[in-house]
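Dear support,

Our group has been running a series of protein-ligand predictions, and this particular one with tryptophanyl-5'AMP is the one our PI (initials K.S.) wants archived with full inputs and outputs. We had some confusion internally about which version of the output was final, so please treat the block below as the authoritative record. The input we submitted was:
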Amino acid sequence: MSEPSAVQTPQAFPPRIFSGIQPSGGLTLGNYLGALKRFAQKQDEGIETIYCLVDMHAITVWQDPAKLRQQTREGAAAFIASGVDPARSVLFNQSQVSAHAELAWIFNCVARLGWMNRMTQFKDKAGKNAEAASLGLYAYPALMAADIMAYHATHVPVGEDQKQHLELTRDIAAKFNHDYGVEFFPIVEPLIEGAATRVMSLRDGTRKMSKSDPSDQSRINLTDDADAIAAKIRKAKTDAEPLPETLDGLKDRAEARNLVNIYAALAGMTAAEVVAENAGALFGTFKPKLADLAVSVMAPITTQMNRLMQDPAEIDRILGAGADRAEAIARPILDRVYDITGMIRSRR
Ligand code: TYM
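Confirmed final output from the archive:
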């Protein structure tokens, strides 16, 4: 089994998990395998888990307000349908807890321009016309650091693409601690684990599966029905070679490797186990097997999401209750940040 070992605490802070997903529309199999599935598993490791729909991150690029509300609810439904239990985890949307925005400002004053300039996600998202990008898109990683640090979270399960942002989070926390002469913020550990830390496009094994890819064939959406899932896997780009005996044989076969990784993550196996079990199989055989597996795992999630989406008021109630719990953790931490930084707090 490739699934992660229990979380270890590298510092004096009690272990606490935080992670977030943007409700910017269209969650994919990448989000499920790289994040949601693992978020649910983390609930069984005896550690407090806090999960957030980061709506304030989403508006760093334009979002239609009505759609954003809908997507936030859909995101919450995806968490719950993937096994995140709002009774066992804190589940909420970011904008309901103002500590995120408040701490982000402090971190804007800690992070250096030189650090932000290295962020590859900004470069990717801003594209050629960076002058027209929002200031929020540029400052985004400082808000992400605030999301995590507002809870003194120690461990953050994410996909591979968030690694650089978590390194920046560590740098911001360390600089804050150093500048103010405190040991106040933990140095967070990224948890990038399992067979699907980077699920690739079904059309191009060198590109990440992403909701922003113009081709819908490149990804499996959490809202796709069984027929669509099976059709996309059948049409996925591969090669004419059979599966090798060992993983080494997949070195220069990005598309083949991706399908093996997806199979492994869906089945809870290692990629090596999948290859060993299917050595010699051609894609004509392996793809239908993968399609059946994907449908059997994903269809119940989609059904459950659709069911939950029929009661938006209940979703809003869950998010509100989660926000109350989140606020109770974050507010005292933020108060101490204000004391450390020399802000007068004479209202309460
Ligand atoms: P976002 O919304 O782009 O993605 C949410 C999570 O899904 C993972 N992921 C993938 N994993 C594997 N393969 C893929 N193709 C794939 N695509 C997405 C991402 O790595 C992520 O874990 N900045 C974050 C959201 C965020 C956050 C945070 C995360 C805001 N604050 C604090 C952790 C802690 C983002 O844009 O993720």
